[in-house]
């Protein structure tokens, strides 16, 4: 424990804090070469129409498999990538790879659908983002309507004029736009209406607790109905049970995503689901590592 105000305080760490610092340093050191070493890959989680259960789209989620660190979840490295600026290169790779994958599914004769990619705050502030999106669409041959970018409320709130301009530029390219983790930031729906956004994704924390917590349920119902009156389509994230799905159906939520429907899966597994047209995967085999 650090002695308060003592001269030697930097020599003492809580063990947990020490472990975090070591891990962070390892991640930062290894992240730089990860793309070149082919350690990054994308997994794909379906979104379904709540009313019909049909697959409506798919979200690409980044995974990092390191030879000694193992499978590293984005929660452990996206922040580091942002701070070091590596996210710019990584983000470009994600957009390019997701577009190429989606085009490959279409070329294989699967029903065309939209692939969503997550955009980080730093990428969003990068003036080159819209040009990079255009370049990825052009080089892969994917039509803009089959790409969607997931943004967050905090991106809309920081430097609002600049954000409106960026979002309008992206909209002009023709890609779909959504607000991820909706409800965790501080924006108002009226303010969001300034942005040409297509989807609101209700954060999974509300969905997780809505059946046991009337406040959470009220938030979910309000987002759905206000979202609809402002012409957004509403997507619920983190749907883990049949009961949650039924509740969302009853309140006319448009789309849903979550482990109950499918975990994020490999491209070939997603292609098989898409060929069947429904989003329930068989339970994982014992011992098989989950990519969730
Ligand atoms: P997100 O975009 O909100 O993605 C949803 C996260 O919830 C994913 O975690 C997904 O695997 C997980 N999830 C999906 N369904 C369920 C469920 O039913 N229950 C629970 N408990 N979790 C569920 P993941 O893949 O670990 O990603 C975490 C976050 O990392 C993402 O949140 C996103 O903000 C970020 N991220 C992922 N891939 C990328 C990327 O390519 N670029 C950037 N900038 N960020 C990314
Ligand atoms: Mg997302
Ligand atoms: Mg989310
Ligand atoms: Mg998130």
UniProtKB/TrEMBL annotation:
Q: Which residues form the EAL domain?
A: 24-278
UniProt name for this protein: EAL domain-containing protein
Q: What is the lineage of its organism?
A: Bacteria, Pseudomonadati, Pseudomonadota, Betaproteobacteria, Burkholderiales
Which start and end residues of the full protein are shown? 659 to 950 of 1081
